[in-house]
Structure formats: structure tokens, C-alpha cells
Write a structure and sequence with these properties.
Number of strands: 9
Strand order of the largest sheet: 1-2-3-5-4-6-7-8-9
Amino acid sequence: MSGRDRERSGLADHISVPVFGRSPTMLKTAILAAVTTVIALTTPASAEQSSWRGSGGDEWVMDLPLGKGLSQRILYLAPPRPRATLIMLPGGSGKVGVQRDGDLRYDDNFVVRTREDWVARGYAVLIPDTIAQVNLRGARSSPAYGKLVVELASYAHSQVQAPVFLIGTSQGTIAAMNGAARARPDSISGVVLTESVSMPGRLSTETVFDADPSAVRVPALVVANRDDACDVAPPEMAPRIVAAMTRSPDARVITVRGGFERSAKACGSLSPHGYYGIESEVVGAIASWLREHGG
């Protein structure tokens, strides 16, 4: 049976307030209210598959309904027999700009631009866009967003019977930590945090420490680049992040060095903060850890 014919799992329920015509702040509040009501339902009739391509595996864009006109758009790519599914949680505002034909408006982020590398290594990749293109800064540690990440893991399990890992980078590490803290240990097999936001910033004061690291009960890997000059992700904080995950059965740090500076800012994606120029080394190190933990 092809991926097109398989029953899709949706993220469907209803919200009680209309959301259109509101300010960005009110829209974000309404969206989080919508996510709060998310429960695991299989609703293939209401989940819109807007693109499908086959290139030696599966690739599609899905709009998973949240209700009241809101949906969670995801990009999904998979080889024929995935060894695991990686839920990639981007940094920055979280905007990827997934188009119906699978093209991306914003693909500089480390976990986004390496997607084909992961598929080539045998992993399925699931990348969520923002809901209604709302900026996720300041919202990723909320119970609502953590619940959404958990539901994305459930969706991943409905597609492939394989382990699921959360991988976040920069601001996306907050979402990954939050999802790992709220997920049952049998629903995800581990969490990977790359260049974690551990210090409050100017645009958002939210950090991985706001996402309940002590509740993480799965193996965890923290990747830190010694040459990362981003002020909200100092590499010397990596051991403190590991120490905060007191219930993890195996939390560790790996360090890397290098990368080139093409972004205008030190926290940009095309910089040592985003492993620009050393992607293969970092992907290889993470893949070794994934294999060690069943992926």
C-alpha cells in the first residue's frame, strides 16, 4: 500500500473563538488556545494532502487540521524503509514557508537544509511550519506547544513503525525540550538539542530551562560548537543543560568546532551557530548517537 493510500492521522479538534481579523498577539493567543484542545484523532477525510512526489521514497505536504480554519502544515520526506523518524524543529521564528508543491521559502536553518542528507542516511524527516505563519518566539515552552510536538510524534508513528526522535536547533531546542518533557518515553526514543538557547535574548527571554528539562525521561544529546558566538547559545552552557535533565537515563554533550560566517549576525543560520560548512560532520555525529539509541 502506498503512502498516498495510507490513512493519515490528523490533529483535529475545535477552538471556541474565531481567529481571523485579530492582531498578531491575539492571533498567537488564539492559535495556542487551538493547540490546547488538540487530541490524537485519526481524521483522514479532513487532513489535506496538498502535494505528493515519489523519488525512491515518500514525500508530501500535509495540512493537519486544528479547527476554525487553522491547520498545522508539515513537510514529510522518507526513504523506502525508514530506520527512524526525525521531527525537525527549526530555530528563529519557526517559519519555514512550506509551499503546496514542497518548495520552501526559508530553508537556511540547519535542520531544514540538511533534510535530504538525513533521508539519504535512511531517516524519515518531518518538518512542521508555523501555524498561520505566527512567530513562535516566546511560545515554544508553553504547555500548548509542547502538546502539539507530542501529537506530531503520534502522527509520525502512524506513518512508519519506527522510533521517533526530536531534533531542535537554536530556538527550536526549546520546542524539542518541551516535547520531550511532555512525551511518554514509549512515544519518542530521544531528543537532540543543537546550539541550544540557554540565555534570555532581546527578542525572546524564553530558554530551554523554561521547558521543564527535569521532566525529560529519554536519552538526550546536546551538541555545542565551541566556535558559536551567538549570545543566547553559549557553548559553555551545554553541561548545565545536560545536568538539568535529571531524569534522562543518558544525557551527554558532544562538542564540535568550526563553521563559516555568511550570515550578518552571529545567531544566523549560515554561521558556526548553524554549522555552516561543517554540516556533514555534525549530521554524522548525531547519526552515530541515534544508531546507539535504536535509530
